[in-house]
Design brief:
Catalyzes the condensation of pantoate with beta-alanine in an ATP-dependent reaction via a pantoyl-adenylate intermediate. Belongs to the pantothenate synthetase family. Pfam families: Pantoate_ligase. By secondary structure, this protein is α/β, with parallel strands linked by helices. Helices cover 40% and strands 19% of the residues. It contains 12 helices and 9 strands. The strands form 2 sheets. It has a 6-stranded parallel beta sheet with strand order 1-4-3-2-5-6, sandwiched between helices. Helix 2 links the parallel strand 2 and strand 3. The longest helix is centred in the middle third of the chain and has 16 residues. It is globular and about 55 Å long. Bound molecules: pantoate (PAF). The site of pantoate has 10 residues, from strand 2 and helix 7.
């Protein structure tokens, strides 16, 4: 595996490749990331992964400085997955001057759910993804469904900018007890780790009630948040949304069994976890 930090070198290395499949990450790789690499292998060749902790997508009071950085362990894992190039730019490589041009995501998708609780997050994500795509020029790129809104945002951006990259969605990788794998799980204490699967259990309970045709989604959401709060969580949201655009379903949508997804974000101690479940 070649480890490259400069954009020019990356371009030289990938020149002429027409089927590059790209997996962007922020490092601290776990089995969830590795499952993205395995899916990537089915969609193209060579596989290019990136590791870049993108300051632009962190709020001023978020965990940019303490975000886990485990570069050497990550390299070993990627070697084993047959990754051809690891693009690991420094901030100076990727942002040699202040990144003043930024993507401005539409408010109806960018201002809700994660966008409401993490202002600027999707501007930061889409800006870095656009820039990474410009560096790697992939034919396809893999994103996990765990970050459901991010996946949709990137897809919509590609469509509206007519980018030639196909976005491939990977299923969420879960621990045996249901907890979605995330780099932020490592902030959890032992006790919190034991409690953490309650988030996914709650999503399953809500999904089941939606499946049974319970029309009052406001009450479902409110009760689910109250159940989590009673267990010591601080929920930001539990929301039942239409899969197509992440907007709230109307009564008609529910009656016609419109495909839906339940999305949740909640804090357990200092750790903010997100998860979702398609209905
Ligand atoms: O999902 C992530 O790890 C990040 O948001 C991404 C897509 C690598 C952009 O920094």
């Amino acid at each position: 595996m070649k480890i490259i930090s400069s954009i020019d070198e990356l371009r030289d290395q990938l020149r002429g490749q027409l089927r590059t499949v790209f997996v962007p990450t922020m490092g601290n790789l776990h089995e969830g990331h590795l499952s993205l690499m395995r899916l990537a292998r089915k969609h193209g060749d060579p596989i290019v992964a990136s590791i870049f902790v993108n300051r632009l997508q962190f709020g001023p009071n978020e965990d940019f400085d303490k975000y886990p950085r485990t570069f050497h362990a990550d390299v070993e894992k990627l070697e084993k997955e047959g990754v051809y190039v690891l693009f690991a730019p420094t901030e100076r490589d990727l942002y040699p001057e202040p990144q003043q041009f930024r993507v401005n995501p539409p408010n109806d998708l960018g201002g809700i759910l994660e966008g409401e609780f993490r202002p600027g997050f999707f501007t930061g994500v889409t800006t870095v993804v656009l820039k990474l795509f410009s560096c790697v020029q992939p034919k396809s790129a893999v994103f996990g469904k765990k970050d459901y809104q991010q996946l949709m945002m990137v897809r919509n951006m590609c469509r509206q900018f007519a980018l030639p990259t196909e976005i491939i969605a990977a299923e969420t990788y879960r621990a045996e007890d249901g907890l979605a794998l995330s780099s932020r799980n490592m902030y959890l204490s032992e006790q919190e780790r034991a409690e953490a699967p309650a988030l996914y259990r709650t999503l399953n309970e809500v999904a089941e009630e939606v499946r049974q045709g319970q029309p009052d989604i406001f009450t479902l959401e409110r009760d689910a948040m109250a159940r989590l709060a009673a267990r010591g969580w601080k929920p930001d949201y539990i929301s039942i949304r239409k899969r197509i655009d992440l907007q709230p379903p109307s009564a008609g949508d529910i009656a016609q069994a419109e495909p839906m997804v339940v999305l949740a974000a909640a804090k357990l101690g200092v750790t903010r976890l997100i998860d979702n479940l398609e209905v």
